[in-house]
Design goal:
Blueprint lengths: L1 H28 L2 H10 L19 H27 L7 H18 L3 H23 L5 H20 L11 E2 L15 H24 L1 H11 L1 H6 L4 H27 L1 E2 L6 H14 L6 H20 L2 H4 L3 H7 L2 H15 L7 H20 L3
Antiparallel strand pairs: 1-2
Helix pairs in contact: 3-7, 3-10, 3-11, 3-12, 4-5, 4-10, 5-10, 7-10, 8-10, 11-12, 12-15
Length: about 375
């Protein structure tokens, strides 16, 4: 009996130790967003190099520009997931509202000569009104019909921008924002840190808004619509109004991102109006993990970083020296992005955000096997 009791005692002690350690890790994990925010806030002051990830120190203007783009697209993917992951709406026209914020702000600056703050507000209002109008029409149908209607609206807008009616959009070349119309603190390479902080502030705003709405009563209705829209109707609620609210909110966040993007790139380009842009957002969400708290943001950041860095890798001398059979596919950034996406989807079903849960499950499984080995048969 003594021999049997000792292994059981050791197993129970091991369980208590594991539980205590897990509790401590959970408590510490609650603070990681705040710690990460502090790290991101101080990034412009950092001279720390990250070989392989960035060229040169973190605080260099080029790296801050790349990090700012990553933050913007992380926020855009998070806002887009309000439709896809939270409400179950697959929109192929989300780029339209991002482009509305970019183009309207730029056109007002150039044509009307209004201050940047007023122009940005008008660009944001344009995104709100356009999404309310087109969303009210698109949501009259559901499923693939909704996706096709949103795609049709976005394609029509993209064609309109490229045809340059009245010379206001710049056609295929786009239009540069007037330097004199932008705040002096946001113009020039010496002010890249200010643009980076604006991108970070935009990400924080999107995360807070999405988190607050998802946990609110309307967010629970969105979840119900995603799971079973007919059941929501049986409860006496009208899904149409709730879906329109999600559509307008996600589009408003995209329009705000368009204004920030205008500051980062210094102009509006027709690439922001294409369906490829929306497909990129879809890939970001799936890559990170649709319907998760941090997944879309992580997916947006990883995709944008890979898009920029893999392009540099494709044109590097190391790739150029490879045999033709290997060099040709590796010299195509889209091939590298596609291969990376397929690998993540195959190895991490549910996206990158599911990786911690999978690691915890594997650790729990190993602990259970260890307990069975300790206990006598």
């Amino acid at each position: 009996m003594t021999t049997a009791t000792q292994p059981r005692g050791r197993a129970r002690a091991a369980d208590r130790t594991t539980a205590t350690r897990s509790e401590r890790l959970r408590r510490a994990a609650r603070w990681w967003p705040a710690l990460l925010l502090v790290v991101l806030l101080t990034a412009p002051y950092s001279a720390l190099p990250l070989p392989g990830l960035l060229d040169g120190p973190i605080g260099s203007p080029g790296n801050l520009q790349l990090l700012a783009l990553c933050l913007v697209f992380g926020a855009l993917a998070t806002g887009y997931d309000l439709l896809l992951g939270r409400t179950g709406l697959l929109s192929f026209g989300h780029a339209l509202y991002f482009a509305a914020g970019t183009y309207v702000t730029d056109i007002v600056l150039l044509e009307a000569g209004l201050p940047f703050a007023v122009s940005a507000l008008l660009g944001l209002l344009a995104g709100v009104l356009l999404s309310a109008l087109l969303g009210a029409v698109s949501l009259r149908v559901s499923g693939i019909g909704f996706s096709m209607v949103t795609l049709a609206f976005a394609q029509a807008a993209s064609i309109l921008v490229q045809r340059d009616p009245g010379g206001v959009t710049g056609g295929e070349e786009g239009r540069a924002a007037p330097v004199g119309g932008l705040p002096a603190s946001l113009v020039g390479i010496e002010h890249t840190a200010n643009l980076y902080w604006i991108a970070l502030a935009y990400l924080v705003v999107v995360l807070v808004v999405v988190r607050w709405t998802v946990r609110s009563p309307i967010g629970r209705v969105w979840e119900g619509i995603k799971e079973n829209e007919r059941r929501v109707e049986v409860l006496g609620l009208r899904p149409y109004g709730f879906k329109l609210a999600a559509f307008v909110l996600a589009s408003t966040l995209a329009a705000l991102g368009g204004v920030v993007y205008l500051l980062l790139t210094g102009g509006a380009t027709p690439q922001a109006t294409t369906s490829d842009f929306t497909l990129s957002l879809l890939v970001m969400v799936v890559l990170g993990g649709s319907g998760t708290r941090w997944g879309p943001m992580v997916g947006g950041i990883l995709y944008t970083w890979a898009d920029q860095r893999l392009g540099d890798l494709a044109g590097s001398g190391a790739v150029a020296s490879l045999p033709t059979a290997v060099r040709v596919p590796l010299s195509q950034p889209l091939f590298l992005l596609g291969a990376l996406f397929v690998a993540v989807i195959y190895l991490l079903p549910g996206g990158v955000a599911r990786l911690p849960a999978r690691l915890r499950a594997a650790r729990t499984s190993r602990a259970a096997v260890a307990r069975e080995e300790v206990l006598p048969s």
